[in-house]
Inverse folding.
């Protein structure tokens, strides 16, 4: 009996040493969670139960649980090094196999997908291509692997001030090269269907009190029927200096600038909005000039927000959302099964994952340019190592003592 009991103690101490040595070995492993061996005593029991005190039959390992406390954050220079500051797991998928990890050392693979070092693709909430908003659909997060396709300008908006102190001029006398025939001018770069930059020029002529005409040129050529034909005639302003939509302006501050197809590109059609202009007694100034087109662009950098929104910035200055990291939570995280590479898979004990965005449903936030370190406390592990070693040695001494007793009995004559 004592042999069996002592051997169970030796085996339990060995299991404890194995767990501790694994913790120490992974003390620098990103996202690693320390394990703890747990034990229970063993008693023999008949079908009818025991009626008298009996000595135990030793010890057994009842389980090895992982401690999912937060690890320290180590800051890096890689934008795709991301750490979860709080609860939650990243969801990754490789060949249809779904796993979960706290190790956020991600990269862009050859196909433009955000992936782990081992090649599993990180899962996230997808972005609607039309609206640019994050949806509830979960899938791979992909960057633009090739050049970002150009977008032709379809809208242009100007705000600013036209000088109310200007004297009146006749629109019919307008000559683009003669500054004396107009009061103010501004220009903006717009783009055609191939992403070529073109110059849009607007000329403003005060033709009467509180009234302006607007001429438009694209690449130096008029976009209207004739060189002296205004794009907008009679643009009205109120006596207070604001654009007077109600007093007869209507949609006069809105116009369409068109140019036929040429040079191998599609026809250009730009909806112009200058209803944000004012007419005050101060110098001409353009406050904002915006348009929605852009040239082709190469991926230049990746950014991750604290809620896990992954954005790409391109060489043409455009920034677009690629997706948002999906964080998983479980009813019982200790029920997760480790599968190596600091990954876990769900089990019946863990329950099914619930996916949310970072910061929602008590999930942690995302820290960019950082990695979560192992939560192994080396000092504590070394103390536990001494205790496990003593336990092993003590049980080994029992084996030796039982062997000596057995030998004595054998030698009796």
């Amino acid at each position: 009996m004592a042999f069996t009991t002592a051997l169970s103690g030796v085996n339990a101490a060995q299991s404890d040493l194995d767990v501790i040595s694994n913790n120490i070995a992974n003390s620098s492993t990103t996202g690693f969670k320390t394990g703890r061996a747990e034990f229970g005593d063993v008693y023999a029991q008949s079908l009818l139960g025991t009626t008298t005190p009996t000595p135990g039959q030793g010890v057994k390992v009842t389980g090895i649980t992982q401690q999912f406390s937060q690890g320290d954050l180590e800051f890096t220079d890689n934008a795709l090094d991301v750490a979860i500051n709080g609860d939650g797991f990243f969801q990754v998928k490789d060949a249809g196999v779904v796993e979960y990890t706290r190790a956020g050392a991600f990269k862009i693979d050859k196909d433009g997908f955000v992936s782990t070092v081992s090649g599993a693709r990180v899962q996230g909430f997808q972005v609607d291509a039309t609206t640019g908003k994050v949806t509830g659909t979960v899938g791979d997060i992909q960057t633009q692997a090739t050049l970002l396709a150009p977008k032709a300008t379809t809208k242009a908006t100007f705000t600013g001030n036209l000088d109310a102190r200007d004297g009146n001029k006749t629109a019919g006398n307008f000559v683009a090269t003669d500054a004396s025939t107009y009061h103010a001018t501004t220009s903006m770069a717009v783009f055609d269907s191939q992403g070529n930059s073109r110059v849009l020029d607007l000329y403003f002529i005060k033709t009467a009190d509180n009234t302006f005409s607007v001429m438009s040129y694209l690449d130096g050529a008029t976009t209207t029927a004739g060189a002296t034909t205004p794009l907008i005639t009679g643009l009205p302003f109120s006596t207070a200096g604001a654009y007077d939509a109600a007093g007869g302006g209507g949609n006069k501050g809105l116009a369409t600038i068109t140019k036929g197809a040429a040079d191998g590109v599609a026809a250009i059609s730009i909806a112009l909005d200058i209803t944000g202009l004012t007419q005050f007694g101060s110098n001409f100034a353009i406050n904002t000039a915006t348009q929605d087109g852009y040239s082709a662009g190469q991926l230049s950098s990746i950014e991750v927000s604290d809620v896990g929104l992954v954005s790409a910035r391109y060489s043409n200055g455009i920034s677009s959302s690629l997706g948002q990291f999906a964080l998983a939570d479980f009813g019982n995280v200790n029920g997760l099964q480790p599968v190596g590479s600091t990954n876990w898979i769900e089990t019946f004990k863990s329950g099914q994952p619930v996916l949310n965005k970072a910061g929602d449903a008590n999930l942690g936030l995302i820290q960019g340019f950082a990695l979560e370190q192992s939560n192994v406390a080396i000092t504590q592990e070394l103390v536990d190592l001494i205790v496990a070693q003593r336990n092993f040695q003590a049980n080994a001494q029992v084996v030796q003592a039982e062997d000596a007793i057995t030998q004595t009995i054998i030698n009796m004559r």
Summary: The first strand starts at residue 35 and ends at 42.
